[in-house]
Amino acid sequence: MTKAEIRKQAIAQRKALSDGQVATYSGALLEHFAALDFSTVQTVHVFLPIAEKKEPDTFLFIDWLALHHPEIRVIVPRADFETALMHNYVYAGREGLLKNAYHILEPAKGELHNGEVDMVLVPLLAFDIRGYRAGYGKGFYDRFLQGLDTLKIGLSFFGPLEQIDDIDAYDVRLDACITPEKIYRF
Ligand SMILES: Nc1nc2c(c(=O)[nH]1)N(C=O)[C@@H](CNc1ccc(C(=O)N[C@@H](CCC(=O)O)C(=O)O)cc1)CN2
Ligand SMILES: Nc1ncnc2c1ncn2[C@@H]1O[C@H](COP(=O)(O)OP(=O)(O)OP(=O)(O)O)[C@@H](O)[C@H]1O
Fold first, then answer.
1. C-beta of 50 in contact with ligand 1 (< 6 A)
2. ipTM value for the complex
3. How far is CA 71 from CA 41, 45, 51, 89, 151, in A?
4. CATH number given to 3-185
5. How confident is the model over 54-83, as pLDDT tens digits?
6. Residue ranges per domain, the chain?
7. Please, which domain of life does this record's source organism belong to (predicted)?
8. Ligand 2 — pocket residues by CB below 6 A?
């Protein structure tokens, strides 16, 4: 399937989830996340969920990290839709977040983070068994991840597709993808 076909299907599949399912599946994702090795992780980049689009509730991950790994810095993005680039900020609590025109919560201001990130949680609409992903189609994460030496972990409520057909040279493969059922490693 092509990314365009996949997007349509995945958006509809997610829309059909109840809020209860989103909460249950998000909890299942967190259980797998919590079993990862954080011994060399100092910084984790976490996307903030678009609740309207039934994305995984990554606040669960942020709260878990604060409790179990208070030494780990959480970095959150702010997306610039004119340039398709993301600017990254040190997470400083929910109070400082505002919703942008795309219903994405983002830091209104704060401390920019231009340093390394050891792990990136990557949003996606679908992924395949090779570790390729399709998102909303603006290439934000492909640009951000290009050349970045970091662990790239997708979060998905659904299992992998056989193949995303129209992969291009910019597409960055995930190292792993967490689903409610299991972690896929690539
Ligand atoms: N939580 C979260 N943050 C993220 C992403 C993501 O997938 N999830 N992105 C990942 O790269 C970037 C934002 N990507 C986006 C790209 C396009 C549209 C957009 O065009 N929305 C339209 C139509 C979408 C649709 O087809 O449903 C709209 O909402 O009107 C939204 C977000 C950066 N931040
Ligand atoms: N590093 C880059 N430099 C220039 N163009 C890029 C880069 N990365 C991706 N693109 C372009 O951006 C467009 C969108 O890419 P793609 O369809 O793979 O988005 P996506 O992965 O679904 O979206 P997102 O990363 O925002 O979730 C494509 O035309 C792609 O070639």
1. yes
2. 0.92
3. 9, 14, 28, 17, 18
4. 3.40.50.10420
5. 999 999 999 999 999 999 999 999 999 999
6. 3-185
7. Bacteria
8. 3, 134-143, 146, 168, 170-171
